[in-house]
Amino acid sequence: MEMLVWAGAVVSLGGLAGLVWCILKGWRARRAGLSDDALRAAVRSVLPVNMAALFLSVIGLMMVVLGIMLG
User: Fold this and answer.
1) Is residue 43 a contact partner of residue 26, using CB atoms and an 8 Å limit?
2) Are 62 and 7 in contact (CB under 8 A)?
3) Which of 7, 15, 17, 68 has the greatest CB tally within 10 Å of its CB?
4) Could you read off the pLDDT tens digit of each residue along the chain, which spans 71 residues?
């Protein structure tokens, strides 16, 4: 079960890295001084990556908790 905990931690860190990437991408788009429509398009393009990163983070944390409970 120790491997499940470590695998979950790696998956969760991957999701966290994706979230940081999304934050930086949105921050750069905001600082670029884009028009409202262009800013919406930039945020819309980041949204699928953001949802996938959140999913990875949740799955990783569930793996960690499951590994702790079973171990």
Assistant:
1) yes
2) no
3) 15
4) 899 999 999 999 999 999 999 999 999 999 998 899 999 999 999 999 999 999 999 999 999 999 999 98
**C-alpha separations of 42 from 5, 25, 32, 50 in Å:** 36, 8, 11, 12
Contact in structure between 59 and 18 (CB atoms under 8 Å) = no
Distances (CA, A) of 54 to 8, 28, 29, 61, 70: 14, 20, 21, 11, 24
Q: Where are the domains of the chain?
A: 2-70
E strand intervals along the chain: none
Structure confidence at residue 24 (pLDDT): 96
- pLDDT on residue 5: 97
Half-sphere exposure in the Cβ direction for 47 (13 Å, CA): 7
